[in-house]
């Protein structure tokens, strides 16, 4: 697998600024770039990246998206007087020109293309370009919203043309709608554009009807434009992550892109004067992480907005550190999405249902059923409420994200004797103290003298301890009896007072009963048959209609259920168990492992069962390889509950979009938490 993260930056791009008074444009300052770059240097992140020089985009590059007339007009700006520049600027909305902006705009687009080249040729795995001016608002023949050339749109066309790739995903997490990108690709099924944006029922800039959830793309491109309008300010981490789990990721996995481009604007973070949202800078670690499992990790992040310098540089650091592979910080205090976010979520899912099989079972409610507009009006004056929201968002304070320390050992393996440890991993075995070993022998081996089994168990407990101490990030153990190994880990975790352990077990292995009643462990089990006798609060059995061999069904269950559950549970350890005969293919297993590494600071322990020596090498290979595919899906249970009674959204009843099964889990949840 390709390694390395590219960083593109050139201080030439700080060399233009607003030359007259304009309250709208005054937030777009050169410091946005210097502050972000200095923060990367100070955190030691820039040094860990591969620095790639920027270049100017050529006319041919720019003409991939823009008209000749527009390019020629912009070309004249370096020679204009101040007065001419002001007049030129007036043709467009919310943008300013400067004698050096044409040069910078060529560098911004060129830097983006250099990043695409570095990723596509395999020089690096992923990367980020710190650029100014931003791009996502600029259109074929118009500058707009501080943007001159559409850096990311140009990059998408360039990548398709130069490398012959079939599908590009553009994720626009900037708080504004990148209408320029939408217009560029709205009839093109080879580029999937996703954008969430402050909208407030069209009351927020750029005030376009085209930004609403029902603009899904045109003609052949229908279904390939995904808009998530935020109709309230103050959206939080849970709102962002819910939209990722329930809208973007299911569609993105079904789309299966060859390359992911991110319109990485950070005005969607807390403290931003434009966005007025409340997501913390470390949410970008998770957003980045969740996208890194697509397209074999080929991800290019390109700076767009971000106008609070503090929140901007913190968010940039979170993004780059995640691209470098450091484990994401623990997501704190996640709840479900708020009512307004839920409304948007639900509307997007309904609007896209005809186009994506992963949404086949999305509830089809009338918009009036989920509208929060009415609630707002009756709650005593929309204006007053809005004023309050704005004030609270502005005065928002947040603490600096904690330092993210990458453990010295990334992956430790507990292997049977004679199995060679693959490169890049560390073989782990423990010299546990005799009293502990004896205890393990008594408990698990009934005093039998199976020394192999005993070594494995004591290594396992020692490994968990090292993860707790953050000396090792994750681990994999090949064991002869996964049930026994699982119980051993659970028991150790309990004795060591680990706060919460999430166990995801694929297959019908016997699971521990211990610890599963008080919420210290949460067990999600993909099994072929649901055992009615095993109804325990923290044991969630999942039956996939077509079993785990149905990759798309499995993936959708992971994205829509396991992941949100995991985020809300916030474990300190994730235990992944693959029992024999699970039917799960290697690609799906790889995905599960990858996605869940966003939890528990990446502390994932994988247990796999091997009986014969011959199986061992194959198991190791599958753990290290990476691929996936798609077909249809659904859960047996969701279907059952959907036909029984369609739930309605109200403040009492949980959201319909989680589906019957998720609904049930969430109820169990609340009971435990409250
Ligand atoms: C609304 C004015 C918006 C344009 C913002 C462009 C952001 C580009 N208060 N002005 S990321
Ligand atoms: Zn923006």
UniProtKB/TrEMBL annotation:
One of its GO terms (molecular function) is hydrolase activity. Residues 28-322 form the Histone deacetylase domain. GO terms for cellular component: nucleus. The keyword Hydrolase applies. Residues 383-394 have a biased composition (Basic and acidic residues). It is found in: Nucleus. Keywords: Hydrolase, Nucleus. GO terms for biological process: epigenetic regulation of gene expression. Residues 376-403 are annotated as: Disordered. Belongs to the histone deacetylase family. HD type 2 subfamily. PANTHER family: HISTONE DEACETYLASE HDAC1-RELATED, POLYAMINE DEACETYLASE HDAC10. This is Histone deacetylase 10. It comes from Gasterosteus aculeatus aculeatus (three-spined stickleback). The lineage of its organism: Eukaryota, Metazoa, Chordata, Craniata, Vertebrata.
């Amino acid at each position: 697998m390709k390694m390395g993260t590219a960083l593109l930056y050139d201080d030439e791009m700080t060399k233009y600024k607003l030359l007259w008074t304009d309250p709208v444009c005054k937030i777009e300052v050169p410091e946005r770039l210097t502050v972000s770059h200095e923060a990367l240097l100070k955190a030691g992140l820039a040094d860990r990246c591969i620095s790639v020089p920027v270049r100017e985009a050529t006319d041919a590059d720019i003409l991939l998206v823009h008209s000749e007339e527009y390019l020629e007009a912009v070309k004249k700006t370096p020679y204009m007087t101040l007065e001419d520049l002001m007049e030129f600027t007036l043709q467009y909305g919310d943008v300013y020109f400067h004698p050096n902006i044409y040069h910078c705009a060529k560098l911004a687009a060129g830097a983006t293309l250099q990043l695409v080249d570095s990723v596509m040729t395999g020089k690096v795995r992923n990367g980020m370009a710190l650029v100014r001016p931003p791009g996502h608002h600029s259109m074929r023949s118009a500058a707009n919203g501080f943007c001159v050339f559409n850096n990311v749109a140009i990059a998408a066309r360039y990548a398709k043309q130069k490398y012959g790739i079939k599908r590009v995903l553009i994720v626009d997490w900037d708080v504004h709608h990148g209408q320029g990108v939408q217009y560029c690709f709205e009839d093109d099924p080879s580029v999937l554009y996703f954008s969430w944006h402050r909208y407030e029922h069209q009351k927020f800039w750029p005030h376009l009807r085209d930004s609403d959830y029902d603009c899904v793309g045109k003609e052949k491109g229908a279904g390939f434009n995904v808009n998530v309008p935020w109709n309230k300010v103050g959206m939080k981490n849970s709102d962002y992550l819910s939209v990722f789990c329930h809208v973007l990721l299911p569609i993105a996995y079904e789309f299966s892109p060859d390359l992911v481009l991110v319109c990485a604007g950070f005005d969607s973070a807390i403290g931003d004067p434009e966005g007025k949202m409340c997501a913390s800078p470390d949410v970008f670690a998770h957003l980045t992480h969740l996208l890194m499992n697509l397209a074999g990790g080929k991800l290019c992040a390109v700076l767009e907005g971000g106008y609070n310098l503090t929140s901007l540089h913190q968010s940039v650091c979170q993004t780059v550190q995640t691209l470098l592979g450091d484990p994401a910080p623990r997501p704190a205090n996640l709840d479900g999405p708020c009512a307004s976010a839920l409304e948007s979520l639900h509307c997007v899912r309904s609007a896209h249902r005809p186009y994506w099989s992963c949404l086949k079972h999305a509830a089809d409610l009338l918009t009036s059923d989920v509208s929060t507009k009415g609630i707002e009006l009756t709650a005593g004056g929309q204006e007053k409420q809005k004023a309050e929201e704005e004030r609270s968002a502005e005065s928002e304070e947040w603490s600096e994200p904690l330092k993210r320390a990458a453990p010295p050992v990334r992956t430790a393996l507990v292997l049977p004797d004679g199995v060679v440890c693959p490169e890049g991993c560390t073989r782990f075995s423990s010299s546990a103290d005799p009293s502990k070993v004896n205890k393990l022998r008594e408990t698990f081996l009934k005093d039998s003298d199976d020394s192999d089994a005993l070594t494995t168990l004591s290594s396992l407990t020692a490994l968990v301890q090292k993860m707790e101490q953050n000396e090792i990030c994750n681990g994999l153990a090949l064991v002869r009896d996964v049930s026994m190994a699982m119980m051993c880990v659970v028991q150790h975790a309990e004795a060591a007072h680990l706060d919460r352990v999430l166990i995801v077990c694929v297959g019908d292995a016997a699971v521990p009963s211990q610890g599963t009643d008080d919420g210290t462990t949460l067990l999600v089990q993909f099994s072929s048959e649901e055992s009615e006798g095993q109804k325990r609060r923290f044991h969630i059995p999942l039956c996939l209609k077509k079993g785990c061999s149905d990759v798309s069904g499995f993936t959708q269950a992971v994205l829509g259920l396991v992941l949100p559950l995991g985020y809300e549970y916030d474990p300190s350890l994730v235990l992944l168990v693959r029992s024999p005969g699970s039917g799960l293919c290697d690609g799906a297993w790889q995905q599960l492992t990858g996605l869940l590494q966003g939890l528990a600071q990446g502390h994932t322990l994988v247990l796999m069962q091997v009986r014969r020596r011959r199986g061992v090498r194959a198991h190791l290979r599958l753990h290290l390889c990476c691929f996936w595919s798609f077909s249809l899906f659904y859960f047996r249970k969701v279907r059952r509950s959907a036909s029984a009674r369609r739930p309605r959204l109200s403040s009492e009843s949980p959201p319909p979009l989680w589906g019957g099964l998720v609904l049930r889990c969430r109820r169990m949840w609340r009971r435990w938490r409250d």
